[in-house]
Structure formats: structure tokens, C-alpha cells
Amino acid sequence: MAKVDEKILNQLAEVISSVAALDFTKKIEGTKGDGTALDTIAIGLNMLSEELEGSVVSIEVLQDKNIELQDAILKMNEFNHALNSSSIVVVTDFKGDIIHVNDKFCEISKFTEEEVLGQNQRIVNSGYYPKEFRFKFWRTILKGKVFKDEFKNRAKDGSIYWMNITIVPFIEAHGKPYKFMAIGSDITEQKLLDQQLLNSIISNQENDREVFAEDLHEGIAQSLAALMLQIGVIELKVRDNKDPQLQESIDFIKTYILESIENTRVMATGLMPRMMMQYGIEPSLRSYISNIQKDGIRFIQFSCTISSKIEKDIEITLYRVIVSLIDKVSVNIVNSIFISISSCDSQGLILAVNVKCCSENINACTLETIDFEDNRKRIESLGGHFRLLRQKGSLKLKIKFV
Question: Of 83, 82, 119, nearest to 99 (Cα)?
Fold first, then answer.
């Protein structure tokens, strides 16, 4: 029986103990490579220790890493607590299905967490935004870019709330977003205050217009009419006078007064159409359109089908918007303007205006250039939806009240 090398055997026991303690620095010395079992085991253990020494960290390093990890987890928990305490948080997957909400979202939307998880984010859609806005929104975040804007949403009970939202895409290894986090703050109260202020300004403006229109109609126009009567009296007294210059002067004064009366009446009608106060928007617009087309050039077509009652504030606002748009675009080369108003209980109130003219003039028309931003705000303050689109050869305005 071969004699056992006790020196190697003792070293083997020491190295095994060191390996068990995750110390891979000890090696067995004096290996011979003679093929004996003990020598082969010693060589193999040396090789294993060398390999483990370069790849396995020590307990001290693991403890340090664990402390760092615990510190990072603590900071993340603190950040998460601060975020949830101050902001509305919604996380959706790539398709827009909700996978996480915090308590503040449930509080403002009046949905429970169980009711929204797995549902599409359209569950709080108010229907306020046109397709163009939604297209811009999805195009931005699907490119991995951050999107910021104000959102008008509808709660479970049908009430409206506003949020200032930042949407952050989470990007996978291939550069594509796989989920989105929306972080928002409640700005409903500020929006309501802004709307009340705007409504107050609009109400004051309408009152001022009505007073001024009354002054024009009852004051200046009546004074001009009285002056016209006096000219008539003078004309009777000098009818036997055959002086042609005198008759020309009288005719000129009469014509000038009549034109002034008509212009005053048109101005008063534009400020506050008296007909609207009694009969509504349709006769008021027909009267306005008839006045601007009295020279015989028929470029405006108007259709109106109203089968449900319209609030007076909405009627006045629509009249203002239509008149403003016609005034803005008629200075350009307009081929035709089509105006359509329809109202019924099932579809609500819809105003559509289609302006056709050359592409150069249409391309120059934006909310800013035709000074229509205030009109948009006015429509939206009354709960309406406002869309202004430019297409080749046409400018399309659509307003809807549900």
C-alpha cells in the first residue's frame, strides 16, 4: 500500500477549511504531478482556488455592498414617499393600460385602485382633446421623449379635473419604450379661477358692447334720422329754386346721411345684434351675412337647423366667433365660405365653417395670426370643443357643445 504524503494531506485540509471560509489565497505546496489520487486532488484544488480568487468577492466586500444596497433602498423609499405625498402618479404599459396608480390618483379620479388596474388610460378621458392633440402626444412619448402639458380628465362621478402632467417613457435595451410614468399635480382650482375671471371679462365686454350699441342705435342713428328729416324740410322749402348746385348739395347731404345711418346700424348690429335678443342666432347671422353681401357678390352660404334650445351666452359667443372669422379672412382672396349650424338633443350643438381660398392665404392663417386664441378660450370656458384646421385650399373651423 502506497505511503500517504501527510504534508500534502495536512495542507489539503487547511486549504479546504480556507475555501469554506471564502479565503482562496492559500495554496497546496509541493505537488508532484505523479498521478497519485492525493496529488491530483491537491492540483485540482489549487486550480479551483485560483479561479475562485478572481471571481468571488470576500465577505467584507459583500457586507459593504449590502450596506450600499440598503442605503439605496432607503433613499428610493424616501423618494417614493415624497413623490406619492405630493404628486399624482400613474404608470401604464406600452399600450396605455394602467399597471400602477397611487392614492392621490384615486383621490382625484374617484376610482379605486382595483377599478383602474388593467384598464386603459382612456377610462379618465374627458373627450376634450381633438385627434391632433392625441396624435402629437403619442408620437412624442413613443419616440422616447418626455411630454409635458395640461390635461382635462373626467372622474368616475362625471366631474372634470385638470392636471399639469409630465409623462416619462421607460426605455428598454433596444431603445423602445416599454412603459410610461405620468407625474401630475392638481390644477383644477386654478383652472376654475381662470375660467371665472375670463367669464367675468367676457360678461363685462358684452355689457359694454350692448351699451355702446344702444348708444349708436338710439343716439347717433336717431340724431342722423332727425337730421334727415330737417334736410327734407329744407328740400321742400327750396323746391322752387332751380339752382342745380343747390340740389346737388342737398342730394349729397341726403346720401351721406343715409350711408352714415346704415353704417351706424351695421356697427350696432355687429356689437350686439338686437334681433338675437328676441329671435336667436339664425336671423341675426342671416341679417349680418345679407349686409356684407349687399353688393351682389355671394360668397357665403349659410345653413341652420336648430331643434333644441341654445343658451344665450353660447349663441352670442358663436355669433362673435363667426363674425370675427369672416372679418379676418374676407380681407384675403376668399372664394367661398360655408357656414353650418345644427343642434339636436342627441348630438348637441355643432358649428362648422369651411373657408376656401388660395393655399398661400390659408397657410398664413393660424390661431395667432387671425387672433383667434381668445375665441378658443371663450368657447372652452363655456364647455365647448374648438378645432381650427388648415388644409390645402381651405380653413376649417369646428365647434361642438355636447
Answer: 119
Residue carrying C-alpha cell 334736410: 231
Architecture of domain 296-402: 2-Layer Sandwich (3.30)
Q: In what order do the strands lie in the sheet with 147-154?
A: 98-101, 88-93, 177-186, 160-171, 147-154
Nearest to 344 by CA among 376, 294, 308: 308
What's the farthest any 2 CA atoms get from each other in the chain? 164
CB contact at 8 A, 12 and 19? no
Q: Which amino acid makes up residue 288?
A: Y
What are the tens digits of pLDDT across the range 7-26? 777 777 777 777 777 676 77
Closest CA to 126 of 118, 134, 116: 134
Q: Tell me the domain boundaries of the chain.
A: 6-56, 87-186, 188-272, 296-402
What angle do the packed helices 312-329 and 281-292 form, to 10 degrees?
Answer: 20
Are the C-beta atoms of 91 and 179 separated by less than 8 Å?
Answer: yes
Q: How far apart are CA 310 and CA 344, in angstroms?
A: 10
Reference 170, options 162, 156, 160, 180; nearest CA is 180
Sequential DSSP letters for 52-84: HHHH---HHHHHHHHHHHHHHHHHHHHHHHHHH
C-alpha cell at 388: 381650427
Q: How far apart are CA 97 and CA 192, in angstroms?
A: 30
Distance, CA of 253 to CA of 19 (rounded, Å):
119
At position 399, the amino acid (one-letter code) is I
Q: Which helix (H) or strand (E) holds 232?
A: helix 221-237
Which superfamily is assigned to 87-186 in CATH?
A: PAS domain (3.30.450.20)
Q: Nearest 5°: phi and psi at 65? A: -65, -40
Round to whole Å and give the CA distance between 129 and 400.
12
Of residues 158, 157, 277, the one with CA closest to residue 206: 277
Tens-place pLDDT, residues 208-254: 777 777 777 677 777 888 888 888 888 888 877 778 888 888 888 88
pTM: 0.58
> For the purposes of burial, counting CB atoms within 10 Å of the CB of 30, is it exposed (0-12), middle (13-18) or buried (19 or more)?
exposed
CB 184 within 8 A of CB 124: no
Q: Cell 432607503 maps to which residue?
A: 74
Alpha-carbon torsion, ordered 255, 257, 258, 264, to 10 deg: 140
